[in-house]
Amino acid sequence: DAKTTQPTSMDCAEGRAANLPCNHSTISGNEYVYWYRQIHSQGPQYIIHGLKNNETNEMASLIITEDRKSSTLILPHATLRDTAVYYCIVIPLRTSGSRLTFGEGTQLTVNP
Amino acid sequence: DTAVSQTPKYLVTQMGNDKSIKCEQNLGHDTMYWYKQDSKKFLKIMFSYNNKELIINETVPNRFSPKSPDKAHLNLHINSLELGDSAVYFCASSHPKEGFNSPLHFGNGTRLTVT
Question: Are A104 and B42 a contacting pair at CB < 8 A?
Fold first, then answer.
């Protein structure tokens, strides 16, 4: 599976957009980009995923560069409850069960 | 209406004891998992079951034995507990679809402390 690189920490003001970058320069053609987050003392929570097109759902938007070597997760109007560790994960299209490997992630702190 | 529930939430025990953690999901998913999150916060897969059959075993010591009585339950039994087993254990489930890695739904974890 492709390795990902994320900043260790980021800050964002409440109500502003939070843009979380992820580098995955070794991604291969059949690998998806997934984003999860983990709020303190809770289990990880799925946010969004994509292959090569930009994606949007009720939680966030995912922007993947044309060469697919990096992506950005966008929380359009961050709230205090979005404070969490955000994980960017790259995983092949088909695996025998989802063998997700979580790296260190980005600690996002939303400030009032 | 909890989707993936684990019990207990906290477990404190002494070295050498045997303990179990239970997990149940009401999402109708076919696949269930156990993940371990260590003190450095790295989350790693331990086991995966699909319709009660083991499909992933990530070189976990034999002291760890998962049991799936039905596809809605995946329990984790740990024999002869060691200090290094102290961690947060997360259960998860997913419903794999053709050509798609369905998102995992995680429980809120069981914090195991071995003294």
Answer: yes
- The whole-angstrom separation of Cα A98 and Cα A89 is 11
Q: CB distance from A39 to chain B under 8 Å?
A: no
**Amino acid occupying residue B37:** Q
Burial class from Cβ neighbours inside 10 Å (0-12, 13-18, 19+) for residue A7 reads middle
Token output for A73: 């997760």
* First CA to last CA distance, chain A: 37
Is the CB of A42 less than 8 angstroms away from the CB of B109?
Answer: yes
**What distance, in Å, lies between the first and last C-alpha atoms of chain B?**
34
pLDDT tens for A49-94 read 999 989 999 999 999 999 999 999 999 999 999 999 999 999 886 6
Instruction: Give me the pLDDT at residue A30, please.
Output: 84
A107 inside 8 A of chain B by CB = no
**Any A CB within 8 A of B34 CB:** no
Length of chain B measured in residues: 115
DSSP annotation of B92: E
Nearest to A92 by CA among B71, B96, B47: B96
At residue A64, what is the residue type?
A: I
Partner residue opposite A102 with nearest CB, options B31, B43, B103: B43
List the single residue in B45, B55, B108 with the smallest CB-CB distance to A42: B108
Q: What is the four-CA torsion angle of B36, B108, A8, A26, rounded to 10 degrees?
A: 60
User: Quick check: B110 contacting A, CB < 8 Å?
Assistant: no
